[in-house]
Amino acid sequence: MSLAHAHTASIARASSSSAPRAPRVSRLGARRRADAPTARATTSPDTDARDGAAGANIVILGGGFGGLYTALKLDALEWRAGAPRPTITIVDRADRFVFKPLLYELVNETLASWEVAPTFAELLAPTNVKFVKGDVVGFEPENARVARDGTPCSTDGGTCALRDGGTVPYDYLVLALGTSTSDGGVIGAKENAIALNTAEDAERMAKVLGDLERDGKSPRVAVIGGGLSGVELSAVIAERLAGKSAGGIVDMITPSGRVMAGAPPGQREAAMKVLDKANVNVVGGRVTRLDRVEAADDAGAPSVATKVTMNDANGEESKQMYDLVCWTVGQRAETPSDWPLSMTATRKVKTDATLRVNGHSRVYAVGDASSSAADLMDTNFDVLPSTAQVAFQQADYAAWNVWASINGRSALPFRYQHIGDMMVLGALDAAVALPVGDITIDGPAAAALRRVAYLYRMPTNEHRIKVAQRWLEDGVEDFARDPAAFLARLPNPFATFP
Ligand SMILES: Cc1cc2nc3c(=O)[nH]c(=O)nc-3n(C[C@H](O)[C@H](O)[C@H](O)COP(=O)(O)OP(=O)(O)OC[C@H]3O[C@@H](n4cnc5c(N)ncnc54)[C@H](O)[C@@H]3O)c2cc1C
Fold first, then answer.
1. Same domain flag for 258 and 163
2. Alpha-carbon span 380 to 99, nearest angstrom
3. Which residue has its alpha carbon closest to ligand 1 atom 23?
4. Do both 354 and 442 map to the same domain?
C-alpha cells in the first residue's frame, strides 16, 4: 500500500469509527460540510480569493511559538466586512503553550507554572481562536498527487487525523509541530535522563532537586551538552544547589570539553565566567549509555542513582554516578517522516520564501520543523536557526500570507531579522548579546533586560498584564523585605567608570 493510500485508509477508518470523538472536532466536521468552499483546483493565490466569502477553515497544527502566534495574528487581522470570518483552530496534544526560553525559571522555581506555561483555554478565551486537544498523526489533502520530480502536491484543503480517531478538516493548513529532544540513540537516555522541552520536564527536574534538598543530600548532577541550553541549565542548577546548606556538584558533559561553540564571543565569555564562579565542572566526554542503579545510601536507606558511561577524546571509557541527569542535546523534528511533504534530511518541511510548503498551495509551515528558502537579513547566518525568534517572526508572515491567499492579495517573502541573543545564567544573572557589533551585557542589568524582552513577547495582552503585575508585586515584596539587598542588586550604569 502506498503511503498516500495508507493515510486515506487511516483517515477513513477514523471517520467511520464508532469511538466517541472530541465534540469540538465533530462540530468542525459538520461546519465544513455547510461552509467549505467547493473543491476545485487552484494554483495561484488570486484564484483562492472566493474562499473568503465561504469562511475558510484555517487549521494550525501545533500551538507553540510558530503556531500560536500565527493563530493570534490571523485572529487580529481585518477580514472583509460582511463576509463570514474564517474559523481558526489550533490543534495541540498539550493543554498548555510553553514559553520555552523561560523553562529554566521553572527549574529554579523563580517563576510559577502559569507564568511560563499558560493553558490554551486561558490564552484563547479573549479571542475567536478555537482549540482542539489532540495528537495529530496524519494529514491527507483531498486532491493529493505527486509531481514528476517526486514532490507531493495538492491544490485544495484536506483532513488531519488525530490519534484518538477524530478528524479535523481544513481549507488552509499551517504546520508548526516544532521539535523535541532526541536521545541520539544513547542506550538508557530516554529512561534515565530528563530532557528540557516541556513544562512537565522542567517541573520534574525541580521536583527531583527539591526531594534531594529536603533529604539534606549534597547531590551530584550531570548536564549532558555544552550548547546554550546546557550552559544555562548548569548555571541555574549550580546556583540553586549553592543556595542550599548541603550544596552539590554540577558536571557539564560535552564532547572534547567544547562549550557554546557557535555563540557570540562576549556571551561565551560571560557564561564561562559564571560557570567558573559556580564551580561547574566542564567534563570532556561523549556519553555512550545511562543505567539506573539501585543502592543504599550511607544510612542504609534505599536510593536510586544513574550511572553515566562516557568516552573521552582518546576513547578512554569512564563511569560516574549521578543523582540527576539532564539531557540538553539533539533535536528531532516532530513532523512524521511519512507525511506527504517534501522534507530535508532532518525532517524539516521545505517551504518557499512565502512559507508555503513546496507543492501544496494551501499548506504553510513555520518554526523549528520548517526549512524555508527565505532571505536571511543577517549575514552571520547560513540557515535559519531553530529559535523562538525565527518562529514568531515567521508567524506574522504566515498569517499575512494565508490572509492574502484568501483575499486575493500578494504574498510577502519572509525575511529574518536577528534581534540579539539572550541567555539566563542565574536568578539575577543573564548575558545579552546585542544584534549590533560584538557587544554583550551581563549581570542583573541583562537579567532585567531579558525579562522585559520576554514580557513584551508574551502571546496575549491579558497574559502579559497578569505576568507584569506579578513581577512588580515580587519586586515590591523583595524591596520591603530587605531594601539594602534589593538596591545592591540594581544595575550600576557607572560600574565600568574609574
Ligand atoms: C529549554 C529551551 C530554551 C530555549 N531558549 C530559547 C531562547 O532563549 N531564545 C530563542 O529564540 N529560542 C529558544 N528556544 C527555542 C525555541 O523555544 C523554539 O525554537 C521554538 O519553541 C520553536 O517554535 P515552534 O512553534 O516551531 O515549536 P514549539 O514551540 O516546540 O511548539 C510545537 C507545538 O506542537 C505541539 N505538537 C508537536 N507534535 C504534535 C502532534 N503530533 N500533535 C499535536 N501537537 C503536537 C507541541 O505540543 C507544541 O506545543 C529554547 C528551547 C528550549 C527547549
1. no
2. 26
3. 65
4. no
